[in-house]
Write a structure and sequence with these properties.
This protein has 10 helices and 10 strands. The protein has helices spanning about 50-55, 80-85, 105-115, 120-135, 150-160, 180-195, 205-215, 235-240, 245-250, 255-260, and strands at about 10-20, 25-35, 40-45, 65-70, 70-75, 90, 165-170, 200-205, 215-220, 225-230. Helix 3 (about 105-115) packs across helix 4 (about 120-135) and helix 8 packs across helix 9.
Length: about 260
């Protein structure tokens, strides 16, 4: 329970059980994500990382437990309340999720047209600004197929921040990128986070990204089907009582490339 003068965590996961029918993916998940965290959801392949993200986005209802945003339950909220909460989120999918038949400018324009009352001229200026923030100034008229994979990831980030969200969600943002592009994307995520004051939640298995940007994390275990570590990734690497967690966080770069989302 939150003390009277203490702000609630930005996101609270409480007694969460995720299951498909009788098949339990993870159970009894309890952790907080504080304002301004860059929080990583990590674990071995198939442990339920992306499934947890889908629960946090409200795409899947938990079998048990709840997720709270600023102290308010998402799953007990009305549809209209959930819609308002979602407007404070930005989401970047593993593939980028850009609409291929739309230009980059049109992709970013879409949420602004749907959820704001800005004029056409104002939206044009905002789109140009968001693309410039991610290093794609002047690319409004390009289609996703006309730019590289790394540029597509940055364009997806520009769309994710179109509405100035307070929470950014990423599903394997560096997947498929070369090390240099991956590092540049990590740096961009940190810059955007600092400039917007956002909280960032990332599903990733890539060690370079985990140690470069994350200050908090949770480890989901495949065998026990629950979380077995929670905290700063560097601290978990050096001090975790769980051998599997230390092994995961000290594995070689070669092993890292074989890991699948």
């Amino acid at each position: 329970m939150t003390e009277p003068n203490e702000q609630p965590a930005h996101i609270e996961v409480r007694d969460l059980t995720m299951a498909y029918g009788s098949d339990v993916i993870q159970h009894d998940l309890n952790f907080n994500i504080n304002n301004g965290d860059i929080f990583v959801i990590m674990g071995g392949s198939g442990c339920g990382k992306s499934t947890l993200l889908k629960h946090m986005l409200g795409l899947i209802k938990p079998s048990r437990g709840d997720i709270l945003y600023n102290g308010t339950s998402f799953f007990q909220a009305s549809d209209s309340e959930q819609g308002l909460m979602r407007q404070g989120w930005g989401i970047s999918y593993q593939s980028g999720g850009l609409f291929s038949a739309m230009t980059l400018g049109e992709n970013i324009t879409l949420p602004l047209e749907l959820y704001t009352r800005y004029t056409t001229a104002e939206i044009t200026d905002i789109v140009a600004y968001k693309l410039a923030l991610v290093g794609l100034g002047g690319y409004q008229s390009y289609y996703p197929s006309q730019i590289s994979g790394g540029m597509q990831k940055r364009a997806a980030l520009a769309r994710a921040i179109a509405l100035d969200p307070k929470i950014l969600f990423f599903d394997e943002p560096s997947a498929g990128l070369d090390p240099i592009s991956s590092r540049l994307l990590d740096e961009l995520i940190m810059q955007i986070k600092e400039s917007m004051g956002a909280t960032v939640v990332i599903v990733t298995h890539e060690l370079a990204s985990i140690f470069a940007i994350a200050n908090n994390s949770v480890y989901l275990d495949n065998n026990s089907h629950t979380m077995i570590a929670y905290g700063n990734p560097a601290d978990l690497r050096d001090n975790s009582e769980q051998p599997i967690v230390r092994q995961f966080l000290t594995r070689s770069a070669a092993a890292d490339t074989k890991e699948t989302p």
